[in-house]
Amino acid sequence: MLKTFKLGGIHPPENKLSKDKPIEILPIPEKVIIPLGQHIGAPAKILVKKGDSVKVGQLIAEKGGFISANIHSSVSGTVEKIADIKDASGYPKPAIHIKVDGDEWDESIIKDDNLIETISYEKEEIVKRVEAAGIVGLGGATFPTNVKLMPPPGSNSEFLIINAVECEPYLTADHSIMLKRAKEIIVGINIIIKATGVKKAIIGIENNKPDAIKLFENIASTYSNIEVCPLKMKYPQGGEKQLIKATTGREVPSGALPIAVGAIVQNVGTVLAIYEAVQKNKPLFERVVTVTGKKINKPGNYLCRIGTPIGNLIEAAGGLPEDTGKIINGGPMMGKALINTDTPITKGSSGVLLLDIKESKRKEQNDCIRCAKCINVCPMGLEPYLLMSLAENNNLERLEEERIMDCIECGSCSYTCPANRAILDYIRLGKGRTGQMIRNRK
Question: pLDDT category, 86, cuts 50, 70, 90?
Answer without folding.
Answer: confident
